Amino acid sequence: MSAQFSDTEFTLLKDALTVYEWALKTLMTKLQIIHEDLKNFQGGSPIEHFKGRIKTPDSIAKKLQKLNLEITAENAKQRLQDIAGTRIICQFSKDIYSLVETLKSMPDCEVILEKDYVTNPKPSGYRSYHLIMNVPVFYSGKTEKIPVEVQIRTEAMDFWATLEHKVRYKYNEYIPAHLSDELIICADKIAELDNRMYLIHDIISLINQ
Ligand code: 0O2
């Protein structure tokens, strides 16, 4: 049976999502400032582009069901850390690490979880760097820390993840072996391509110096 919020819980969730929207907006404004400063005044930004999203109620319900949790607004708030999420695209894998250091040095947004799927890809072949950042939101006379998931990856990693996500959706999570094998081969080739492109970039930078 498809997972769904009851009418009462749906209303509670909708109200709760407002604070996640504020947290996402706050973090994205901070990212924009970091990007513009690095690009215009520090000689270059590792950020190509970024976007944000709030998970849909359907997707939240599905995730709670997957975790065997009751589908309530409270469980969503207490147990999910990716209700608000931003995805940042960098040119090169090395840029991912310099950006992670910049984000970790932000004094007002604490990193509470870090997963390096770039150095340690998932068995599916998925590569990306994940951070969960606690973003403070001041409203109704109080400050609440809201978790926001930050996914950082290269353009090539994003290309792969988007296609794999479509395949996963098509097969309802269970990708046939011949396709998952092919996706793993593609993921490895993409990682190699990322490295080779960076080498070319490195050579050009050396020549420019
Ligand atoms: P959506 O629709 O993108 O939000 P889990 O989500 O159960 O795998 P966990 O611990 O919650 O595990 O987080 P994890 O492993 O850090 O992954 C969270 C998100 O990373 C996923 O969110 C995806 O966006 C992305 N991701 C992780 N693994 C893969 C993968 O193998 N392929 C692709 N394409 N994306 C992946 P959601 O909620 O699954 O989906």
Features:
binds ligand 0O2, Beta Polymerase, domain 2, 209 residues, 5-stranded mixed sheet, 5 strands, alpha+beta, flat
Q: In order across it, which strands form the biggest sheet?
A: 1-2-5-4-3
The helix/strand order is HEHHEHEEEHH
Low-pLDDT ranges: none
Give the ligands present: ligand 0O2
The oligomeric state is single chain
Q: Can you tell me the CATH architecture?
A: 2-Layer Sandwich
Q: How many distinct domains?
A: 1
Structural commentary:
- The structure is a single chain.
- Helix content is 54%, strand content 22%.
- It is of the alpha+beta class and 209 residues long.
- It has one domain (7-155): Beta Polymerase, domain 2 (2-Layer Sandwich), CATH 3.30.460.
- The protein has a five-stranded mixed beta sheet with strand order 1-2-5-4-3.
- It is flat, with a radius of gyration of 19 Å.
- The chain starts with 6 loop residues before the first helix and ends with a helix.
- The model has no long low-confidence stretch (mean pLDDT 96).
- The site of ligand 0O2 has 12 residues, from helix 2 and helix 5.
